[in-house]
Design goal:
The chain is built from four helices and no strands. It has 131 residues and is mainly α. The protein starts with 18 loop residues before the first helix and ends in a 12-residue tail after the last helix.
Amino acid sequence: MQEKHPEETPSKSFLGLQRGDQFFLGTLLIAILVLAVIYIGQLSRWGTKPIEIKRQSHLPYEYQIDINEAAWVEFAQLKGIGPVLGKRIVAYREEHGPFQSIEDLLLVKNIGPVKLNANRIYFKPIPIPPE
């Protein structure tokens, strides 16, 4: 039989791992935790200054339609004029011919002076035919 020396202590195993394996796994775990903390710090932008972006002021949106050329969809986008009234304007134009002035829209059913004035800026002026 072999004799055990009192100076030698048997290596203890934890979860079936030897001492060298435990050291390797501990080092690996610490390295993973350090890298995770660095990665989370980068995602949170910790330690960085916010960037101020100077933007140009908004330009006014100018939208004008020709009442003698526009489809009902274009009329439907205006204030107080939906798809039904837009189709009615186009049907009136097809039945009676092109509008001679913007005020001729008052001849279409359900268009009054208030609705016409609210949308007047969106209508292109009708050119006067040369005589």
